[in-house]
Design brief:
The structure holds two protein chains of two kinds.
Chain A (H helix, E strand, L loop, with lengths): L9 H23 L2 H31 L7 H31 L2 H7 L5 H34 L4 H32 L4 H26 L7 H9 L10 H14 L2 H39 L11 H9 L5 H15 L2 H20 L10 H27 L1 H5 L4 H6 L4 H31 L3 H28 L8 H6 L1 H38 L6 H4 L2 H35 L3
Chain B lengths: L1 E10 L2 E11 L4 E5 L6 H9 L6 E6 L2 E2 L4 H7 E4 L11 H11 L4 H14 L15 H13 L5 E5 L7 H16 L3 E5 L3 H7 L2 E6 L2 E6 L1 H8 L5 H15 L5 E2 L6 E3 L8 E3 L9
Parallel strand pairs in B: 2-11, 3-8, 3-9, 6-7, 7-8
Antiparallel strand pairs in B: 1-2, 1-4, 4-5, 9-10, 12-13
The chains are: A mainly alpha, B alpha/beta.
Chain lengths: 582, 279
Amino acid sequence: MSAASRPVSQPALFRRLRWRLLVNTINTMLDTSPIRPLSILFCSIVVWLFIFFVSLEGFRFLQHDVRLPLGGEIVGTLFDVLFMLLGVLLIFSSGLVLYASLFGSAETAFLLSRPARADRVFAFKFQGALAFSSWAFLLLGAPLLIAYGLVRSAPLEFYLFLPLFFLGFVLLPGCLGGLACLLIVNFLPKRRKQVLILGCVAVVLLLGVWGVEILRASRPDSWGAESVNLLLDRFAFTRSRITPTHWVARGLRAAGRGETDKALYNLGLVWSNGLVLYLVTSFVAAKLYRRGYNRLATGGDLRRKFGGLWMDRALNAALPFVRPGTRLLIVKDFRTFRREPQQWAQILIFSILLTLYFTNIRRLFPGQIDWVHQNGLSILNVSTISLLLCTYTGRFVYPMLSLEGRKFWILGLLPLKREQLLWGKFAFSTTMVLGIAGSLVILSDLMLGMHASVILMHLLAVTIIAMGLSGLSVGLGAWMPNFRETDPSKIAVGFGGTLNLVAGLLFLVTILILMVLPWHAFTGIAASSLLFRGRDPTAAELLTPTNIGVIVGGIFAGLIVGAIAVFVPLRMGTRALQRMEF
Amino acid sequence: MIKLDHVTKRYGTKTAVVDLSLDIAAGELFAFLGPNGAGKTTTIKMLCGLLFPTSGTVSVGGHDMRTDGDRARQLLSYVPDLPYLYEKLTGREFLHFIADMYGLPPAIGRERVANVIELFNLKEFVDDLTERYSHGMRQRTVFASALVHQPKVLIVDEPTVGLDPKSVRQLKDLLRQQASQGTTVFLSSHSLDVVEELADRIAIVDRGRLVSCGSLGALREQAAVDGSLEEVFLRLTEQAASEGIPMMNGQAPADGITNARPGSSGTITLGPGTGRQMQ
């Protein structure tokens, strides 16, 4: 240390850096294109208000129409389940974001070649990763809980406790994700992808087993106290006294009842455990971060040989109707996709799980499956498949254009119209997601014994959803590209990614309501009323001319909405791309 | 000031650096040459503590990089071939961040920042965000940041890439000046004319092994070529490839410069004055 130097407060140094970066980023946005931050703010407010009013109506419905006590066990269990699922998601998302920030960014290489302490660099990146992985949760969770408080007539302290519980809550899964990231990189640097995939498989399998248990418990024909208790028992593990997510749910409910002492106790539990875990994580980072960086950089061979595969050639041969330039881009995207096992592995895992569920669904019904369950399960399955598509396009398709990054000039200089770049990505995405979704829909409906016309209707709806979600993800991805970011998970959970996810969700709900729900609603209502009379409904009783008119009208409306979801974002993306300078 | 003691570095089954030993004195301008993939960048990353040797030790200013890395890094500055700048900071903010990182008291930090702004002629653009900088502006800012805390060791990887002739001249003067002021300069470059003009000692590595280390004169003698460094470099790397590369040591004795011949594992010590005099 030179004579002029003094002990430096690195936490203060990094705080100043973060603040300066934030201020400069906002100022640049306001200077260069004020419309963008304003539209971000506007969209956030719209999303926030949408969730708030939906939640408000939902809680009012539960309280006044269903007469469900909001302070009771059922709502408490729902909170427990919600926070537990969010907790698991946050462990994975913060771990993944942190991995990319700590080990894959040029910034950390820069900081680690300076006298910055390893635990301080870790803390700096940890805060960023936590903010990235949890801001959407804060944005989406806050209106839901505020709506709960309003319907519940919660006292003022409930709203004061909310941010404190939120912040305390994200600390625990963030630390667990960080710890997992550091330990895997240090002790299994060559197997990190496999460990991640195994972790995902384990979580999804557990969720699958849990889902089947819940389905079995919810089978009884009558909803009496016994059956509700049986169902609630399936959620018992989320209410364990040692589960941090239960402390959050219990504390918030206590705050809602005005029991400040209990709320404070639970808040103390959340924060004390979170901070202790942070200290442990920070200690581990001080010891293992640099070691892990070295292990990861030198864990594999210097070079690995890659080459063409029969799948690339097959895809190329399967697209003779596509322009050669666009076809090249599609094959390039496919090649990149198949070389990222964490991408296709997640899709594969979810697809296999859904296949297992669909093929075993009839076992839940020993005899002939009744109309009500057939009807309900088939629309539930289509919705689940659509949600899978939405997650996939949001996570993998939306970042595709941004990931071209600073190499984008290569694409920009190709002898192709820029709109072809987008159409190529759109075609790639639609083909991939439609292949998966179409197979799953057919399998599900066949297992449930649905009529061919219903299968066709579902296929049409899923095709529109696949095209619309691809159009949204590719178009918005080009409209709001982030060429500076190299981590796809960060791009996906950034503002643009979240906006795309919300737009995708709204779109798929709209399509399901327009194209799928009418048939299921009409036949469901008719079937239920006739079943009470002791016989199955006939086709004529199920589908009156009015009903058919509404169903066909819905399908046409769905086609129009689908066309808008494809062409408008792609048009926006194309314009943005054409204005782009390289 | 810089000491590498029997350093080996493996990437999985591939060995990037093999039993490398170097001892570089304070105030020495040491050039590190080698073909692509020779292990230069790996060696530099070990010098900065970004990577650790698989075996052997690396120390800077007497501090072991593995056990006392933060103190070692306090003494050095590293300018990589693709330097990093925070795009949303101005050049001035970046320089102050670096000054703070190295613990300079505020008044001294301000003074040093003002000095490097003057020295590198950054005044025109130093208050713009670095995302708007050209390559040359970025390089100047990075060098300014590397010198703001007056390091004892300056490690530079391919500094002349993309610079215009005037900037290259200024850079050469700067490196020479730093060495004459007592800073150890570790320069990795493919610009052999720059190395030829500046270096006190030159090390040539190939496939992770030290092929030769010494003054330009010593290298000429070893290569049996009385030409430019380019000819010497090509001859030595060709010899190493055809004859097999011996293990070598690149220690810097007080009275001369070490060197070795291909095919032998020993070292030759040349007398004072054989190599270029340090200024």
